[in-house]
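lol so apparently i was supposed to do this last week
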Amino acid sequence: MFDLMGRTILITGASSGIGEAMARLFAREGGRLLLCARRTDRLEELAAELRAAHECDIHVFHLDVGDRDQVSMAFRGLPDSWSSIDVLVNNAGLSRGMDPVQEGSLDDWDEMIRTNVSGLLYVTRQVLPGMVRRGRGDILNIVSTAGHEAYPGGAVYCATKHAVDAFTQGLRKDLVSTPLRVMAVSPGMTETEFSLVRFHGDREQADRVYNGMTPLAARDVAEAALFALTRPAHVQVGEIILWPTNQAGSTLVARDSSKPPHSSTLPPPHSVPPNESAWRGFYELNEEESGFPGSEPGTSPPIV
Ligand SMILES: NC(=O)c1ccc[n+]([C@@H]2O[C@H](COP(=O)([O-])OP(=O)(O)OC[C@H]3O[C@@H](n4cnc5c(N)ncnc54)[C@H](OP(=O)(O)O)[C@@H]3O)[C@@H](O)[C@H]2O)c1
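anyway here it is w/ NAP bound
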């Protein structure tokens, strides 16, 4: 079995959620970590903690993946000792809003497309030539179950994740004659800051997403990524799809109404102002009507 010892691993979006959980796990496994995101204060804190706990080598840098010039400058500016990247984990991503398309916000759409699709392409384009030249490298994309099945209110987010799925497949084909591996991990509902960001900081709305069910934890997804990255060189994990046990599709989640309402213990992210208009009683509608397309009584649509 391969391990991560001494491998230089770039994780985009390492300042929270799944990216942060991967940084924690990969540091424990001996990886050299290159961590980027926009909130560098968080990255610095995380790096200090991981250096103290595991004596690992970590370099952090500011990056808005959707800013093409910034991406090219950031990679040109990497110190020599960090420029040979062995593993790229394209994790940075977000969802914004739950409006139906006819009422959708163009700003929300632009932000999702810029981050989830363009950003992932820009970063991959910077890192890939070096991997091809050196004849080694793994690319692992964090896609989503939303990359396989769309859900109402999520058309544009799902479209971005379908795009990432298609790109992942195409890239694997482009690289078929090389030793490079292209992998994906696609989680269902995972409790991170994802819903808080989607609802522009509205904690109550974000908590309701996980009412009456147990979502995946960021750590669960990080463990799947670790599995994929540590297979022997001749094994290329195409995709790992992870569901919470009580989720069986983008619009099928069984919720136990006897459970107390979900209450997150996650700290509030900064720079995401509340937006009262975002959720629009989506859950209430389905509880009253109990007939959401594709759902069963007692279930309601998830958002991942
Ligand atoms: N949570 C879920 O249910 C779920 C399910 C399936 C797939 N996913 C996918 O998992 C990935 C990680 O999300 P998460 O759940 O861990 O959410 P999260 O806790 O909100 O983390 C998102 C990360 O992406 C970074 N990011 C966002 N926009 C960025 C940008 N323009 N440039 C650089 N970094 C950016 C954020 O850092 P900064 O804000 O500091 O830049 C943050 O570190 C995403 O691709 C998401 O689509 C999540």
